[in-house]
Amino acid sequence: MIIYKQGKDCFEPQKSAYSTPETTTKLSASETKILQYLIDNSGEIISRDKLLEIGWPDKVVVPNSLNVAIANLRKAFKTKNEIIITIKGAGFTIAKNTFIQQQIQPEVIVEDESVTEEVSSLTPNTAKDETPVSTLDSNDDVVVDSTPLSHFAKIGYGACIIAVLAWIGLWTSSWQSPPCVSVNNQQICGNIELLNLNELPKDMPTKGTVYIDSAGKLHEKN
Q1: Are 92 and 85 in contact, with CB atoms under 8 Å apart?
Q2: Which of 85, 91, 97 has the alpha carbon at shortest distance from 212?
Q3: pLDDT class for 111, splitting at 50, 70, 90?
Q4: CA 195, CA 183: separation in Å to the nearest integer?
């Protein structure tokens, strides 16, 4: 099963759910398709017509249906409404590295017989003629419990380590670089929510990276 992590938030397409530490929001089928498409195409500007096609395939709906779906998704994000960025005159986008895709293994189901065998093996005094044997010398002061970790404990520790590393990777990538979007094969980074495709300069460079500042102005930087 594939999920998408954004900090402590989690988007689960198979369950049509978006979860924050506070709550879980159930998404409609159209909202799920739109969000997953935007995530899978992070850094690309997706037109309104394309999102209408993705959210409602083989159906004719009013354009306002997309506005309602985007608004509902932003409500699910709680305080992170900037996840889906509106590009004036073009459509919507999600910046690169906003979400991290993770593959979740199916849950392990333990059969009753295995559980019974494990419980039986832990039951004391299973044989009357068995007595504990001490291998400590008379000079030993410390007794060390060498019982190995159970299989399930190892899986749990491994999952926790992977989750922590993924969160650190997301935090590091977002800290090191500003959000970016591609426009006609040109990389534009910075305050991309202020980007207006109708006002792009005709002499905009075709190589290197262009940054948009807090005032909406573009600056070239090779």
Answers
A1: yes
A2: 85
A3: low
A4: 10
DSSP state of 96: T
What secondary structure does DSSP assign to 184-197, as a single string?
A: TTEEEEE-GGG-BG
Instruction: Give the integer Cα–Cα distance in Å for 36 and 167.
Output: 20
Rounded-to-integer distance, Cα 58 and Cα 53, Å: 7
Q: What is the 8-class DSSP label of residue 15?
A: G
Contact criterion met (CB below 8 Å) for 196 and 88: yes
Residue pLDDT, tens place only, 119-163? 455 555 544 455 554 444 545 554 445 455 566 666 766 766 776
Residues 12, 18, 20, 24, Cα dihedral to 10°: -110
pLDDT tens across 185-208, in order?
Answer: 667 787 777 777 666 776 666 666
Q: How many residues belong to the chain? A: 222
The sign of the torsion formed by the CA atoms of 74, 75, 76, 81 equals positive
Going from the C-alpha of 162 to that of each of 108, 150, 209, the distances in angstroms are 18, 19, 33
Asked if residue 220 lies in contact with residue 205, where contact means CB atoms within 8 angstroms, the answer is: yes
pLDDT of residue 211: 76
- What are residue 102's DSSP bridge partners? 3
Who contacts 178 (Cβ-Cβ below 8 Å, separation ≥6)? Answer: 189, 190, 211
